[in-house]
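Long-time lurker, first post. I've been practising inverse folding by hand and with some scripts of my own, and I keep getting stuck on stretches where the structure tokens seem ambiguous. Below is the full token string for one chain I'm working on. Before anyone asks, I'm not after the true native sequence, just a reasonable design that respects the backbone. If someone could post their per-position residues I'd love to compare against what I wrote down in my notebook.
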């Protein structure tokens, strides 16, 4: 006699749950892709996130107010399809926020400056082909692995003349390697991005910090929205239940173990032991090889531009603070522990051995 009421209760509860989930899914679809970043990025099933198509904002600099626009593909500058339609060829640039330059006027972007330096359509001899269009495919917070996935998808739509990879060691090695990202979660993208490995056949194989959540996020807009809201609530309450990574060591704890205050600094450490950083370098070398192979299979020229970090080119207040931390925590001058040119030296050896064209800024 008791099974009837219990069955009805279970049925009603199930129906309510299903209706609620369908309502959440419908609401999430109507409101558009979820945003996890403060930057103009939205959730993307393949890359984890990408620029918001059609985004517009007004910013200010010393010269006054200017507009930042993303085209309908979520990039700054001309559309790839427009370049292909003109039949003038194209130069594709891949990179992260250093290339996107959201705090820079569009005419001051490296891609815009390069376009200005190329001969104009009417500037050459009669019958000469038009100059190639420079296309900026940079996406903030992405690593080389994500950029490789975007490159492979782009090659299905066009064949460029030149491909330029802006490689930023200070960010890319951590953004590309799950082992290092677990020690140094910094940005919302760390829990969303695919960490791309190259398999034995040379093909990219995406992996995730939390594969189950990544799968649900890719298939359900409602789950992505719920995950974001619950994550915010948990963060405000100081709960790490929904965090993508376990708690990490702070600067003091790291130095107590004779490490440097921040994980990325270990890249510059002299006498670095083989281990996770050696694996990270080999991992990224494989990504660059895959980038070159895909490019050269289309008979296009491949070039890598090595972009230094701010701490490598100027002494800032942050650098002074790190020097003070290291002196107090380790009793040594920072310049005695690190070589700020170490990544460029390592990359130069790799590029010369592989025969890859490169420029170090």
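-- Answer (accepted) --
I ran through it position by position. Result:
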């Amino acid at each position: 006699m008791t099974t009837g009421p219990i069955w009805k209760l279970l049925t009603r509860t199930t129906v309510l749950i299903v209706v609620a989930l369908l309502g959440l899914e419908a609401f999430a679809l109507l409101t558009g892709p979820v945003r996890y970043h403060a930057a103009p990025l939205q959730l993307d099933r393949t890359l984890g996130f990408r620029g918001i198509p059609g985004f517009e904002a007004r910013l200010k600099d010393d010269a006054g107010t200017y507009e930042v626009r993303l085209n309908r593909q979520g990039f700054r500058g001309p559309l790839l399809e427009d370049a292909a339609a003109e039949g003038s060829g194209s130069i594709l640039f891949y990179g992260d926020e250093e290339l996107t330059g959201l705090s820079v006027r569009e005419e001051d972007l490296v891609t815009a400056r390069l376009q200005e330096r190329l001969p104009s359509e009417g500037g050459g001899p009669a019958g000469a082909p038009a100059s190639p269009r420079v296309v900026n495919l940079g996406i903030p917070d992405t690593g080389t692995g994500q950029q490789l996935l975007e490159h492979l998808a782009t090659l299905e739509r066009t064949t460029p003349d030149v491909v330029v990879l802006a490689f930023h060691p200070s960010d890319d090695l951590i953004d590309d390697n799950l082992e290092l990202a677990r020690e140094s979660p910094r940005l919302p993208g760390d829990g969303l991005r695919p960490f791309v490995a190259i398999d034995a056949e040379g093909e990219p194989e995406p992996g995730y910090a939390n594969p189950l959540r990544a799968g649900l996020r890719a298939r359900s807009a409602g789950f992505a929205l719920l995950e974001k809201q619950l994550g915010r609530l948990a963060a405000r309450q100081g709960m790490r239940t929904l965090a993508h990574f376990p708690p990490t060591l702070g600067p003091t704890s790291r130095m107590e173990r004779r490490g440097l205050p921040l994980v990325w600094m270990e890249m510059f450490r002299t006498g670095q032991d083989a281990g996770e950083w050696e694996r990270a370098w080999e991992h990224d070398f494989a990504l660059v090889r895959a980038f070159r192979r895909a490019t050269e299979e289309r008979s296009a020229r491949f070039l890598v531009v090595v972009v230094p970090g701010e701490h490598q080119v100027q002494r800032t207040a942050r650098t002074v603070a790190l020097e003070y931390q290291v002196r107090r925590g380790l009793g040594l001058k920072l310049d005695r522990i690190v070589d700020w040119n170490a990544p460029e030296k390592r990359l130069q050896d790799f590029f010369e051995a592989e025969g890859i064209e490169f420029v170090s800024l």
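A couple of notes from the structure itself: The mean pLDDT is 88. The chain has 14 helices and eleven strands. Happy to go over any region you disagree with.
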